[in-house]
Amino acid sequence: MVNQNESFTGSAHSFCEDYPVKTPLKTIEDYLSSLPVPIRETLQALRATIKSVVPEMEERLSSGAPFFWYRGRRAVGFGVAKTHLSFYIMHGDVLKTHSKDLADYDTSRTVIRFTQEKPLPTELVQKLVRARLEEIELRPT
Questions:
Q1: Long-range contact set of residues 111-115: C-beta below 8 Å, sequence gap at least 24
Q2: Is the pLDDT reported for residue 135 higher than 80?
Q3: Contact 79/25 with Cβ under 8 angstroms?
Q4: What DSSP letter does each residue of 18-43 carry, written as one string?
Q5: What average pLDDT score do residues 85-93 get?
Q6: Looking at residue 8, what DSSP letter applies?
Q7: What average pLDDT is seen over the chain?
Q8: Which residues, other chains included, contact 2 with Cβ-Cβ below 8 Å and sequence gap of 6+?
Q9: Quick one: how far is CA 31 from the chain centroid?
Q10: DSSP per residue over 87-120, as a string?
Q11: From CA 136, how far away is CA 140, in angstroms rounded?
C-alpha cells in the first residue's frame, strides 16, 4: 500500500494491494475515500471549486467517475488515471474554445490532464464550468 503522505504516482487501481475494491463505489464520497490522501485532497479542492459555481448541481458517479449534472445533462467531472488526474468536459466545445487558456496542460477533446503537483487554478476551473453551463443553457438537449 502507498504511504498516505507520499506523492501518488501509480494508477488509481494500484495504490492499494487489494484493489479493486470488493464493494462497488456508490457515491462520490466512496470514490474519494478510496484514494490516497494527497490525491483525495487535490480532487476535493477541485470538487469544491466546481460546486462554488453552481452549488445545486447534482453529483453522481457516471462510468465510475464523479460527474456534475446540470439541467439533466452531464456538465463536468473528474477522475484518476495511471499517470495523471483528469478534469472532464465530455460534450460541447469548451475545451476547443478555451485552448489558449489550456496551453500549459495536456488536453484532448474531452479531458484536461493535470497532476497534484500542478493542480488546475481555481479561476480556470470556474471559467470552464461557467462556459460548459452556458453551453448547456444554449443547447438544451
A1: 111/86, 111/87, 112/86, 112/87, 113/81, 113/84, 113/85, 113/86, 114/84, 114/85, 114/86, 114/87, 115/84, 115/85
A2: yes
A3: no
A4: TPSPSSPP-SHHHHHHTS-HHHHHHH
A5: 93
A6: P
A7: 84
A8: 8, 10, 15, 16, 36
A9: 11
A10: EE--SSSHHHHTTTTTTTSEE-SSEEEE-SSSPP
A11: 6
Q: Say if CB 64 and CB 34 are below 8 A apart.
A: no
Q: Which of 1-10, 88-97, 124-133 has the highest mean pLDDT?
A: 124-133
Which residues does 30 contact at the CB level (< 8 Å), separation at least 6? none
Whether residue 119 is preceded by a cis peptide bond, meaning omega within 30 degrees of 0, is: no
Phi, psi torsion values for 119, nearest 5 degrees? -70, 160
Which amino acid, 57?
M
Cα 28 to Cα 53: distance, rounded to the nearest angstrom: 18
What is the Cα–Cα distance from 140 to 68, expressed in whole angstroms? Answer: 16
